[in-house]
Amino acid sequence: MVNVRKPNYEFPDDSPKIDWDSKHTQEEVDIAVKELSDYLDIAPEIHRRRAFIPDYAITYLEKYINADNAKLEALGLQNVDSIFNYLEYGFEVDIDNLEKLNANSALINFSTGNYPFGGIERFIITLKAFGLKATECFDGFVISKIEWLSDIEYKTTELPEKTKAYLQPTHSKNKTALMELLSHFLASEKSLYLAAGIIGIISAVVGLLLYYFLIIKVLP
Fold it and tell me: Which residue windows are transmembrane per the record (predicted)?
């Protein structure tokens, strides 16, 4: 997810390594050609997805995608590979830190200089596919509590007071200069949302680096 955005990054070549000099009969050559052909018939990103995402996570992601497609009816044409494409190219963030909070919970810090960056819903769903349930997030604007309504659906409840405290310079470990300046403007809930809006507008124009976090819980 992070490596693909590095300058001059090249995907590893995992195609079959065939020693053609060792093939002494036509049958051996035909078998090798078929092996290589079968590999090339599958798109490279599908090979990568199969290498990185285990079957149990694929099963969960398919459940999520099928439900999402059902909502879109005739327009619902997504598949699991669309999520993998999002993780590789659409979710343009850097994972800055993973901090263990207790035996069952952890804090993920990530940042992006490309706002908007596609949102974090699919990131939350991907974590859930691996047995990591998001319970709280800061999406660049406000801190929200995440409550799961089903295995694949959740709702968020904004926590303005907690957001205000998080954006204060004395409490925020992940602040930008702009956040620090605007934190003095957070005298009321109304000004909080105005400040967040200003952050979003300026970041969209000048590519300001924004910081986010997710609190996750390991599922039993």
Answer: 192-214
What's the CA dihedral at 128, 129, 130, 135 to 10 degrees?
0
Token pair recorded at residue 58: 């694929």
160 preceded by cis ω (within 30°)? no
**CA distance linking residue 193 with residue 31, whole number of Å:** 64
DSSP H or E stretch at residue 166? helix 160-167
Q: Nearest Cα to 123, choosing from 71, 72, 81, 86?
A: 86
Q: Nearest-CA neighbor of 219 among 143, 53, 98, 106?
A: 106
Per-residue pLDDT of the chain (220 residues; tens, 9 = 90+): 677 777 788 888 888 899 999 998 999 999 999 999 998 888 888 888 888 889 999 999 999 988 877 776 555 557 788 888 888 877 777 778 888 888 889 988 887 766 555 567 888 888 899 999 999 988 777 889 999 999 999 999 999 999 888 887 654 445 554 454 444 444 444 444 444 444 444 444 444 456 677 777 776 6
Q: Are 121 and 200 in contact (CB under 8 A)?
A: no
